[in-house]
Write a structure and sequence with these properties.
The protein has one domain. 69% of the residues lie in helices and 0% in strands. The protein contains 4 helices and no strands. It is elongated, with a radius of gyration of 33 Å. The relative contact order is 0.07.
Length: 110
């Protein structure tokens, strides 16, 4: 006598999962169609174009700032502290003016 079959352990039960489909709201879809709603993100207009360029400028400025800081460190190590200070101050003053101008321009354009 097989006790496992009597207890129900011997039989393997196959479980099939039902795939549920999402419910479609017909009323909402008809309203969206009526008003011309698009699901896609709109990637047009000046803000989108300017944003890409401004972000690229910001990344380039960060790379340039790192390069200038490395150059300043090298100048200090080689024994040129006055030149290092001058390079750093000139860079910061010019970049500060440029950053202010870019912020003003971005505020006007966007």
């Amino acid at each position: 006598m097989d006790y496992k079959k009597l207890m129900g352990y011997g039989d393997t039960k196959k479980v099939t999962k039902k795939e549920s489909k999402p419910k479609v709201n017909e009323v909402l879809n008809s309203i969206k169609g009526e008003f011309g709603y698009k699901k896609d993100i709109i990637k047009e207009g000046p803000a989108y174009d300017y944003g890409k360029s401004l972000k690229a400028i910001e990344k380039a400025e960060n790379l340039q700032a790192k390069a200038v800081n490395n150059f300043v460190k090298i100048l200090k190590k080689k024994g040129f502290p006055n030149e290092a200070t001058n390079v750093a101050s000139m860079y910061m003053s010019n970049m500060r003016k440029f950053d202010e101008y870019m912020k003003e321009l971005a505020d006007k354009l966007l």
